[in-house]
Amino acid sequence: MSLSKTLLRMARFGSSVLPKPKKTISRRAKFKQTLQLSSTFQEHILSGRLSDPSVNVESLIIRDNRLNEVVQLQNTHPTGDGQFSFSLTHDILPALVEQVLENKLLAEQEQLSLEEDTKEAISILEADASEDLAETDSESETDLPTGRFSFWLKFSKNLEDFRPTTLKKWETKGLPSRSSINGGLFTREIILGRFLETRISSPLKPLIDSEFQNSAHIYTDLKGNLRLLLNKEPKVKPKMQIDSIERPVANQTEIKGKIFTRHAFIQKGTLQLVHRETGEQVAVPIDWMYDNAKSAEKFGLYRYTYRALIDWTDIYHQQQLLKEGVYDTFVSLEYYHRSETTLLRLGRARYITRQLISETKARSDRHTMLINPYFTIGHRNLSFEMTEFTNENYDYLNHMMKFAPVYRLFAEKNTWIVGERPYKAQDNGYHFFKYMRDTYPDRPVYYVIDENSPEFEKVNQLGHALPFKSKEHIYHTLMAKKVIGTHHGDYLYPVRSKRFDHKMNAEHVFLQHGVLGTKNLENHYGKHSPSFHTDLFFVSSEREKRVVTEDMGYPEHEVRVTGLARFDTLLAKDCEVKRQILIIPTWRTWLQTPLQFFESEYYEQYRTLLSSERLHQFASAHDMEIIFCLHPNMQQYSSHFEDLPITVINQGERDVQDLMKESMLMITDYSSVAFDFSFLKRPVFYFQFDSRRFIGPKGSHYDLEKELPGPISKTPDEVLDQLELSAARQFQMEDEYEKRADIFLRPVNSSYAETIYQNITDFKKQTSWLERLETSEAANILYRLYRKNRYYFPSMKLAYRLMQKLPVDPKLVVFESGLGKQYSDSPRYIYEELKRRNLDYKVVWVYNKRLYLGDPNAKVIKRLSPAYFYYLATAKFWVNNQNFPHYFTRRKETTYIQTWHGTPLKKMLFDLDEIHGRDEGYVDRVTNSIKQWSVLLSPSAYASTIFKSAFRYDGPILESGYPRNDLFFSNNQPKTIESIRTKLQLSDEKKVILYAPTFRDHQSLGNGKFFFDYPFDFDRVAEALGDEYVFLIRTHVLVTKKPRIPAEHRERFIDVTSYPDIQELYLITDLLITDYSSVFFDFANMNRPMFFYAYDLDLYRDTLRGFYLDYYKDLPGPILETEDAFVEALANIPQLTSDYRSRLDAFRESYCAMEDGSAASRVVDTYFAEDTLEMTEQSDGSYSV
User: Fold this and answer.
1) What predicted TM-score, i.e. pTM, was given to this entire model?
2) pLDDT tens, 754-777?
3) Does any domain span residue 1183?
């Protein structure tokens, strides 16, 4: 065993035996001591104890989802003393059914009238609405009435038993929720759940009435509260984790871990090994053990430990079930008293567990199956890769791994291994290998190819072919100095295992198998990916190089712009273009089994497109053939499209590059072949019906709408619309898309393959210990733990003070906007003016997501990262529209340009009589931040006066106008508007309403975060607007919690809070609705109507904030103080727009006079230009240039 594995085992053992830190338990939690549940089909017994013996538990109340009382059961425990016992029998079911029917009738009446005010929704149940939906099936499977209910304990206590401090607290702050005092007796209801100990020793049976018609399931929800579900089963969503994967003997694998089934008691479970290509299954038994103690600690949510032992020799030799390929692991679960079964992917292993896995084998008389466990990229689920050798070759493999260092002393020098996947030879690997054999035939360059591949013969004709898993393959791979591949380098190994990789002594070169496409590939090919390694990374353009260095973390010296080897033949004009449409989609990582494929949207959408009568009419009208070619990872499903009137290409039948060269049009989704085709200057069409899932939460490396060399469609009809537009252009590529294509390919002087060869031979590997540390998965895990540790900020503050001793970089500018959540506002437009002028500054943008700036002098970092502290300590300029954290002190050499983020309407800071929703130290922290400002930008004299008063700021104020409003005067507005509408998927005929409310100080969550509730009924607003408008919602950056938009309204109402720049949203907005936010000052520049929905005006004006303007007289739009007035206004937009036109004009004259499109230019001229302008102090103390 290696030293590293020994240390990891010691670490795992230590974590298992060392005492865990004790969790602090609040007084509220201690109050609920024990709860026990037992059941039959006719009766459930709920009993337990509260910690306070002076409390008398009176009853158990069952309430519906509107919190109406339905049933009240009396406590049957004779002694009191905080103890209780309740019997729930099937006799309660009729009352529950009656309540559900009554609620249904009431809901129908409300839906018809639509005249009542928005229902009050602040309750525990409705706050948990999304959770409840997750606990139950989305569609009813029965005609019986269904509903959810909650349990409430009602208890009482004499006032004389309370401490005086408690009574005094109630006098000042009010009574706790759902409590009352009557005649010296305090009475309260608390939800039943979250007891310190909840014991459910056997599966809870459903209550079933005597007629076997209605039933009720009692279950524990995710928060640990007890619920009842009528005539419906709670939905089961189990989770699993792997604690260890061991090899007790050479031919076995033992898997141990935990499973959490929430409220479902396991009856039966098996481990299923599913072959990824064929779908064939191998069942392995699992031993389960219910963890009663842990379940009791976790509010009765069921927890299990499991153990599965896989005997590979028995499966392979005796049962003869194993085949070469990848087996994915699933667990099939059946439950007591649940009709639902689940098939769960096995995964979720921690770092140490992943590192301690090791290969095993199964052996028969003739063959050895080498079994390599690994964890998939992204989700890190467990899979097993099977590689079969003859016994002779397997013994040779072991021999060579043992004595490889000795053999290298006598082997050919500088051997290169080239390839793609073992079954393939038609991509960059083959083209580069062919070039090497034609041009440098004496070089020891070999190609790895499976003898059973249909492409083996064409490689073999060139010479130096290595049959996959042969002795020659094993030998030359271990002797190789360079491994040159189009995918993971270990695809060219005879076996993909860590043991073999550790025996290698070769540099890895990544040829790529296409220009980096639309999907984020950082997890697959990034520098920090634990499953991928390369020393040299080839790309086709400077744009792609930026992706690899900035997004994927590679240093500059490891990335070379060479183009791809296949481009030599791709761009050779040696092929006649045929009248054919090539449809060539990429694969989907989540479609790994035949069942998943046939039930997928992918299969449905491509069947719809390929069978479309409109598509075939188009092809017939233009005399075109339709060619369909699935990705190699999906080739096993090609036969399921052969019933359609198209030509289906199977693996190896045709060279994909030849197909592209001879095709007139291409339809793809996210495949990189689109870039190849665009280099031929032919039209590409993107069919991206599942972009949100495919691209994922990390987003693309590119701005798809602005950078892809073809139009994007979401439906088959949209694709066909684009085809018809292309036909009208005689199938010529549009100029805009040609320009985009040119960005992704840099021409070379010689051939692309020769350029690659020269770069490989010139490359000198240089890896420092620091780089190895940065890319180590262990080091990154330790950093994440450190980042979450309470010592992180104290240590970084100390580091910041030390880094302030370093020299200030006179050309370094740090930009931040919206607390690192936005690339927007005035900092953005100042930066873009700097970039436009090509001034010699180094820029650091603080942004917590992915951001492509297209600027070699710009770097993107995350807020509060170590780099954040470093760059703020050494920068000459800080530019921000909010404050940096209060503990940052500006150096005297640093200039801090505070752009602020709006013209004030509501009163701020020192102009307030009382500050709501903030802690005691808030004012001191903000005051310290204000002291760091070097200059404050202002849009007007009105704003400057307020800033001085509200901030008690006596430093320079530059009345430049707001740089962010320069956008409104740009000549590029039409293109920007088109791009924004496309991103938001808004049709051209839809008018846009933008609702942008501010936050409420009294709706605080603490730590500078706030919640917000929508002050309108979505049904009423939708009815008032009709089909003419789409309603965009953008809440304040400090709002972190808000209700979801109802599912039935998500096409008409769109949350655009995450859209990076609100200024761009103004461009597409026809009507702005706000309340007290300053957004209307900026929007006034658009000369478009505004409504002010001030439903809590009295509270906000008189208690929370107050205003600098007269809210009724000065604002340029109607004031709507009730929901009825709001809805009525939405139904009369044209009339109200006309009524307030003159007031809007007067408002613009008064407050927008300085906005002329040159504010950013004035700021750059003053602080960044070579000949900076002098600021002139005005009579009011402000400055102008």
Assistant:
1) 0.76
2) 999 999 999 998 877 777 777 777
3) no
